[in-house]
Design brief:
Elements: H1 8-19, H2 21-58, H3 74-88
Length: about 90
């Protein structure tokens, strides 16, 4: 019968390969990726520093827009009409 991939002998053999044969390749790959990421982050920080200083010089300050008050939804339009009707009614 075939051995399962979860059997002790198979697991032991895989761990030996991981530690010996493939470890060199994995370490080399990790070093290459780390160097590449380091270069990219350095260029991004340089670009972002330039962009921030340029934006501060060029952008005028914007006025805040008020978001309070009635919206344009149908429900709120209905409520507005009902309130107006109540205010116009005179009692004797």
């Amino acid at each position: 019968m075939a051995k399962s991939l979860r059997s002790k002998s198979k697991l032991r053999a895989k761990s030996v390969k991981r530690k010996g044969e493939f470890a060199k390749h994995v370490d080399a790959r990790n070093e290459r990726l780390a160097a590449k990421l380091k270069e990219k982050t350095e260029t991004q920080t340089e670009k972002s520093d330039k962009n921030e200083t340029d934006k501060l010089k060029l952008e005028p300050k914007l006025e805040k827009i008020s978001t309070s008050g009635w919206r344009d939804s149908r429900k709120l339009q209905y409520k507005q009409r009902q309130l107006k009707k109540k205010k116009n009614v005179t009692k004797f």
